[in-house]
Amino acid sequence: MFGEKLKKLRTDNQLTQDELAERIYVTRTAISKWETNKGYPSIDSLKQLSTLFGISIDELISDDDVENQRLLEQKQSRRCYWCAIGCLTAAVGAALIDYFAAMPNMRFVGLIAVIGYVSFGVLSKPRYKRMELKKLVAPYVLSRLVILAVVIVAMVTAFTRQ
Q1: Vertex 41 angle, CA 37 and 42, to 5°
Q2: What is the distance in angstroms between the CA of the first residue and the CA of the last residue of the chain?
Q3: Mean pLDDT value of segment 10-18
Q4: How far apart are CA 20 and CA 14, in angstroms?
Q5: Contact 121, 91 (CB under 8 A)
Q6: Which domain holds residue 124?
Q7: Model-level pTM?
Q8: Of 47, 64, 81, which closes a domain?
Q9: Which among 117, 132, 111 is positioned nearest to 82, based on CA atoms?
Q10: How high is the pLDDT of residue 22?
Q11: In terms of domains, do 55 and 75 share one?
Q12: In terms of domains, do 56 and 27 share one?
């Protein structure tokens, strides 16, 4: 039922009824009524809910299981996470090989690995978590830039060694 789905989405996103109400411009009592199936949101509220939780209106009001969709997204995110770790390892390995074995062609491998790391790093968050990241963009970007800087410094050091 809609009320159960709404409550699960709200709690999964660690929102109180007040916080959810504030985000979609309704009252807390409206949220309470929706969650207890004593009322239903307007189409405008449904649009805002679907945008907030990163799901379609059909998923929000249909009988499809939202949890299954989240599990699939999390599984895909885990794959992307491990691919990002693999790319980071390859980039560091390429920089070290270039530095110690003086193999300049490893710079290209390192560059491709860094691009892969950044790409997979972004995809490693499920869609609904990426929406939360909008609030924490600066720390997220900063952490990625620090890691990227370390890899680039290693590559530049290897390049200037020659």
Answers
A1: 150
A2: 67
A3: 92
A4: 10
A5: no
A6: 71-161
A7: 0.47
A8: 64
A9: 117
A10: 93
A11: no
A12: yes
How many CA atoms lie within 13 Å of 66's alpha carbon, on the beta-carbon side? 23
Q: Are 53 and 60 in contact (CB under 8 A)?
A: yes
> Which residues, in sequence order, are CB contacts of 111 under 8 Å at separation 6+?
155
Tokens of 10: 């709200």
Number of structural domains found in the chain: 2
35 & 95 share domain: no
Mind listing the pLDDT tens digit for each residue in 89-140?
A: 998 898 888 888 888 788 888 889 888 888 888 788 766 565 555 566 677 6
Percentage, residues of the chain above pLDDT 70: 84
Same domain? For 43 and 97 the reply is no
State residue 30's pLDDT score. Answer: 92
H or E, element range at 86: helix 66-101
Q: In a 3-state reduction of DSSP, which class is residue 22?
A: helix
43, 75: one domain: no
- Tokens 């499920």 belong to which residue? 126
Q: Does 153 share its domain with 79?
A: yes
- Do 31 and 76 fall into the same domain? no
Phi-psi region of 103 (alpha: psi -120 to 50; beta: other; left: phi over 0): beta
Residue found under tokens 């900063």: 142
